Amino acid sequence: MAIKLGMEATLNYKVGGQDGAGSWLELTNTKDVTLSLEAGEADVTTRGNDGWRAIVATLKEASVEFEMVWDTGDAGFDAIKDAYLGNGIIGLQILDGDSGEGLQADFMITSFSRSEALEEAIMVSVTAKVTYSTTPPSWIGGS
Fold first, then answer.
1. Which of 61, 80, 98, 136 has the most CB atoms less than 10 A away?
2. Are 102 and 95 in contact (CB under 8 A)?
3. Which DSSP string do the residues of 94-132 spell out, in sequence order?
4. How far apart are CA 97 and CA 84, in angstroms?
């Protein structure tokens, strides 16, 4: 069994989306990243299910939530902020390590909330959701 620690994971970004110019860059100014993967459900219950409800999975959806230190000198922070303010597409890779496996997709930043705790650094909580793109989401890496 290969146990992975959260601190070994990487969150990479690409301005303009997966097909944007330039290379993937790591967002090093992040903590507490959560990738949520869910699917809708369709009820396929029949009388033959002997009293049990039956479902099949339908459309998948993904969102990623994370926190960043409010650092206007950090290029990754600026890319996330600019994507939010400009309603721009940003490519994200949520991987379990360098060259690891995880989701790669084009996202829209749907929440960019700043907290100003008295004795803490100013932080921003970010939510990103998969968006319309000519390049569909994919699971990359792994075996």
1. 80
2. yes
3. EESSTT--EEEEEEEEEEEEEE--TTS--EEEEEEEE--
4. 26
Which pLDDT belongs to residue 1? Answer: 62
pTM of full prediction above 0.85: yes
What is the distance between the alpha carbons of residues 81 and 84, in angstroms, rounded to a whole number?
5
- Cα-based angle 62, 112, 81 (whole degrees, multiple of 5): 100
Q: Which domains does the chain have, with CATH numbers?
A: 6-140 (2.30.110)
For residue 13, give the 3-state DSSP assignment. Answer: strand
Helix (H) or strand (E) holding 140: strand 138-140
Question: pLDDT (tens digit, 9 = 90+) per residue, 120-130?
Answer: 999 999 999 99
